[in-house]
Backbone:
């Protein structure tokens, strides 16, 4: 398994640190506003926002997965070596990712999410109103779940996952091995979603990715 350079490893560590600081800062601001207007805040609605954020992250993970599996190649400029190659190699060696540590799994995701947190701070500032608070809560939960998606993916491949993880998988709260294993059967054109896997049965049933592939002028599976 190819190891990343020291400089890239350092960048991933820095990305995780910066993401953690920014996320805690923005979450603290949201909590402060929430406490100030607690009488206007619905816990039930926040729970609904969490479910919607997981579904949105699940769809996003599936769409990116679909594009990387079916369009371009490892030679595609920038995207090929940084994204597409990893997805294609994963089909040939699905268990390799089990050996990846926390930094390898989440470093790039954290780096990619930092601009989203910065954008949230400037584009959807907390103004003390309930709508701005709900918007921040949803966006923060969405970003966090998207960052954790690769960890959920690894756990779906790891038979030695912790007991609490297996419990979450059995409850279908995160991606389960049974759900994800359907993707690893040639031609690798089912169950693209990797966060919770909730959307996989529905998207399979309506042949969503087949329709998108045809719209883009290509078969949804690679030969």
Residues:
């Amino acid at each position: 398994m190819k190891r990343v350079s020291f400089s890239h490893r350092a960048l991933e560590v820095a990305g995780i640190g910066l993401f953690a600081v920014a996320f805690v800062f923005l979450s603290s601001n949201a909590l402060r506003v929430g406490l100030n207007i607690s009488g206007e805040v619905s816990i039930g609605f926040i729970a609904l926002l969490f479910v919607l954020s997981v579904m949105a992250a699940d769809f996003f993970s599936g769409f990116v997965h679909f594009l990387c599996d079916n369009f371009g190649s490892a030679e595609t400029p920038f995207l090929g070596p940084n994204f597409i190659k990893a997805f294609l190699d994963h089909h040939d060696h699905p268990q390799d990712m089990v050996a990846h540590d926390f930094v390898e799994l989440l470093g790039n995701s954290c780096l990619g999410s930092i601009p989203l947190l910065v954008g949230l701070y400037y584009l959807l500032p907390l103004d003390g109103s309930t709508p701005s608070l709900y918007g921040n809560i949803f966006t923060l939960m969405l970003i966090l779940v998207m960052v954790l998606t690769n960890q959920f993916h690894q756990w779906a491949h790891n038979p030695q996952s912790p007991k609490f993880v297996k419990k979450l998988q059995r409850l279908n709260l995160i991606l389960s091995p049974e759900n994800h294993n359907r993707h690893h059967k040639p031609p690798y054109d089912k169950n693209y979603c990797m966060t919770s896997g909730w959307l996989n049965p529905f998207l399979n049933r309506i042949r969503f990715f087949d329709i998108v592939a045809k719209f883009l002028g290509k078969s949804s599976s690679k030969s």
User: Anything to note?
Assistant: The chain has a mean pLDDT of 91. Residues 68 and 209 are 13 Å apart (CA to CA). DSSP finds nine helices and no strands in the chain. Residues 6-36 form the longest helix (31 residues).
